[in-house]
Amino acid sequence: xxxxxxxxxxxxxxxxxxxxxxxxxxxxxxxxxxxxxxxxxxxxxxxxxxxxxxxxxxxxxxxxxxxxxxxxxxxxxxxxxxxxxxxxxxxxxxxxxxxxxxxxxxxxxxxxxxxxxxxxxxxxxxxxxxxxxxxxxxxxxxxxxxxxxxxxxxxxxxxxxxxxxxxxxxxxxxxxxxxxxxxxxxxxxxxxxxxxxxxxxxxxxxxxxxxxxxxxxxxxxxxxxxxxxxxxxxxxxxxxxxxxxxxxxxxxxxxxxxxxxxxxxxxxxxxxxxxxxxxxxxxxxxxxxxxxxxxxxxxxxxxxxxxxxxxxx
Length: 313
Description:
Layout: E1 2-3, H1 27-39, E2 46-47, H2 54-60, H3 67-75, H4 78-84, H5 94-122, E3 124-127, H6 148-155, E4 161-165, H7 172-178, E5 184-191, E6 207-211, H8 217-235, E7 239-243, H9 261-278, E8 282-285, H10 295-309
Helix pairs in contact: 1-10, 5-6, 6-7, 8-9, 9-10
């Protein structure tokens, strides 16, 4: 099952002067349209909720983010400028920033949580958004205002969860917020010379694997498989949350690894096949991926995971 809402997108087209941010504001809609075409499915095959009470969801974020930070997102444009690395955002009316950035990421958090619940009940679910693993308890950074993965993981109670983070960047926010919980384990494979720098919160990552810049298919897939097997065998999770970042691809503007499209497909297939073989529920989120010409092939890989995980009746 797929989760998607038009609220996932960043409505930058409504601006008089668009900020020059790295993210594509309609990436999620593009992937949604590709998935429909690839699988030959309709909008009825997606669980979507367009009538979202953002104030209510924001209150729920108090379980992972501090009140001071959540209040600041309602009042201070600086937090948006810092998070998205665009100074011009600090001059933007706060109401516009909330609608453009905060509300979509609250929708992602809801989608990620609903995907985890569905996966536990039915075996798998894919949210065509989410993966904002850099949001810290008191600060948003790395394009991440709201930490949807941490929110979903802690909201599931005492379920034994393995977070497999395959984004090119270390998930510092996830590690800080839920890395110390006894029932949550993290496997994180990332470019060691990329953001975030330093060792902060590394100690809360159970299986932290550092890659050198420009690591390519053969080495990447070998390392990924080794630690995927190790982490799954040792944790025996009741749920895997798979942060399926595609910023590992050659030429990505911020990932700086050198994995091919075929390498991405093999990685995703490896995770899906393992979950199917071991009967482990899995919830998948998109995470990073910034090269627009790859969106169709990334969608193909997501669709392929769905095909693998869909039960044959």
